[in-house]
C-alpha cells in the first residue's frame, strides 16, 4: 500500500494541457467525474488506491499487469508523478480519468495546486550529480551559447579546428538567407574549406594511434552472435567498398541507395560513400518495395547496396526480394545491385549482369582508398522523411556543417570521449542512426554498438543484457521502447548489471514523465542524467537538449538550445512571443547542420520550412516555454503523426488507402497509444457497390503495409459512409480526432459543416 505520507497531489501543465493529478487515499472523497480504479480494473486495482483526474480527456489507463507492482502506461504527454512503493524499486503509477466541467475550471487556473497539507510538487527539476568534462556549470554554457549566436562564424570556426580540413575555410565562412521575402533560401558554412567526413571518422583516429580501438561493436539478432571491428578494420572495409563503388562507375556526387539490415556493413556502406564524395540514401529496412522504388527513383540512385535478408527476432526479412520487386518498377535506373550474403538468410533470386555478391567482389579490392576531398557544402546524404503531403521529402545534408554539429553535439550531449562504449538503439534507416550511431560516435573516437535484433528478443531483458555485456556508458533510445520495457517489468532490468551506465538519452517524441522517471530511477538507479534531445531529420543534429550535469532537468523537458541554435516561440501571426507561454517552435537563423534543400525540389523546401513564418525555419512542432526559458516540446502541429518515434504523414497513408479499388475516400488522424506514443486511425468511405466487411478492413491495412511498410499500418479502421466536411469540401480533421479519441463532448463548433448529421453517424458507427 502507498503510505499516507506519500500521498501527493499536484497539477501540472504539460503540452498546454492542464492536468490535475489526484493521488487519493481511499478515505478521500472523490470529486464528481473521477472513476475509481477499482471500478475499471477489478481486483488488481486494490493494490492501487489511487485516482487521477485529467482534463485533457486523453488520459486513460491503458495497460495493466497482474504481476508485481508495476506501471500503468499513460497518455504520453501528461505530467504525472510516480513514487517508489515501500520495499520495492517499482513504481506505482496513476490512473487517469476524465473530470467534469467544474473541476476543469478549477484546474485551469493556477499551474500548480496544493490541495492538501503535506503534499509536495514532484515535478521539480531533478539534479543528478554529474561532472561534465567540458562544461563547468550553467554560466559557462550561457556564455558559450551567447558567443555561438553572436559570432557564429568565429564560434564554429573554433569548433571546426577539432577536425581535419584539407583546405582551410575562410575566416568569414558563413552566409545565409532565412527570409523568403529577400529571395532564395540558402545557407553556407565553412566557405572555401575542403574536408572529408570519413577521413575525420576513421583515418584521423588511426593517425593518432587509436587504430586498434573498437569502432563498431556488432551484436547480432541471436544472443552470442557478435563481432568487434576496430577503427583499422572499419577503415579497411570502407576502403574496399569505396574502391568497388569507384570501379563500378560511382564518382563524386553520384547517388547510392543502401537497403541493409543492421549489420556493420550498413555504417560501413555509408562511410564508403562519404569517402568518395558519393551521396548515400539509406532506406529503412522496414519500407516496402513501392516505398523503396519511389526513393530510389527520386534520388536517382545508380547502385543499390542490399543483403539477401535480415533477421528481426524470429522473422527473416527478405530484403533482396523487396529490392527486386521495387527495381522492377523503376527499370533501367540502377545498373548494379551489390548483395551482402547474410548467412542467416542465404537464399535470394538473381538477375545476371546486375546483381553481384559483396563477399566475392570486395575481397579483391584494395584496403586503401584515396580520400576525395570535398567542398564543405558538398552533398553528404539524402534521407527521406514524411511531410504533410503524400510524397516523402528527400532531406539533403551537406558535409562540413553536418560534420561539425554531429561531432559537437555528440561530444557535449553525451559527454562522449575516445574509448567510451556508446549505444544508440536506432536503425541507420532513420536520421538518428546517421548522426548518433554512425557519424557522431566515430567522429569522437568512441565504440558504437550496432544491434541487429529486436530489443525484446529473445526476451524483455535483451537491452539490459547488451548493456551489461559491452559495459555501455551512454545509452540512447526512444520513449516508445522505454514504455514497452516498463510494461515488461522491472525484474528484467534489475537482473543485469547497469553500473557502467553514466548518461541516458531519449529521442523521437516527447517523453512522458513517468517513463522519464522509470528510466532515471530503475534503469539508471538515480545516478545517470537523462538527456531528452529534441531534433529532426531536417535539423541534422540536436537543437534543443539538456547537457548532462550542467543544469537540473525537469522530467519531460527538452530544455535549452544547443550552441548556435536560436529557437523562438511564435504566435499564429508569426510574431515572436516573449517569456513563458505556448506557441509554434521555429528557429531564427541558420545553424551548421540545417537541411540545405529537399532533393530536386527547392521550391517545396521553401514552402514547407520557410513560408509558414517569414524569416524563420519552422519545425512543425508546438512548444511551451516556462518562466526559466526552458522548452517543452508539445508535438507536431501539422499532419505528421509520430508512431513509435517514426514520422508518418497522414497524406501518405491516405494515398495508399485510396489505391484500394473499393476506397472512395480516406482520412487518417493520430490517436494516443500507450506504447507507440501515437497510433493511426483511418476513416474510410467506400465506393458504391462495395460492402463494409472485416475482410475489406484487412485488405486496406495490407495495402498500407505493401505501399509504405508494416510500421505505417492503421491501428483502427472506422467505416465512414460520410466524412465531416465544410461547405468548401475541406475535411474537418479536428472533428475526426475528437471522435477517434472518444471526446465527442468536446467537438466544438460544427456549424460550418455541410452536413452536421455525419458526425452522429460516425459516432454510432464506431468500431
Ligand atoms: C530525431 C527525430 C522529428 C520529430 C520532431 C518532433 C519529434 C523528436 C523529440 C521530439 C519531443 C523530443 N521529436 N525528438 N519531440 N521531444 N526529444 O526523431 O527525427 O524522425 O525527423 O522526427 O520528432 O515532433 O518534429 P524525425
From TrEMBL:
Its EC number is 6.2.1.1. Keywords: ATP-binding, Ligase, Nucleotide-binding. Residues 211-588 form the AMP-dependent synthetase/ligase domain. Residues 141-201 form the Acetyl-coenzyme A synthetase N-terminal domain. The keyword Nucleotide-binding applies. CDD domains: ACS. It holds the Pfam family AMP-binding. It catalyses: acetate + ATP + CoA = acetyl-CoA + AMP + diphosphate. One of its GO terms (molecular function) is ATP binding. It comes from the Eukaryota. NCBIfam families: Ac_CoA_lig_AcsA (TIGR02188), PRK00174.1 (NF001208). Belongs to the ATP-dependent AMP-binding enzyme family. This is Acetyl-coenzyme A synthetase. The lineage of its organism: Eukaryota, Viridiplantae, Chlorophyta, core chlorophytes, Trebouxiophyceae.
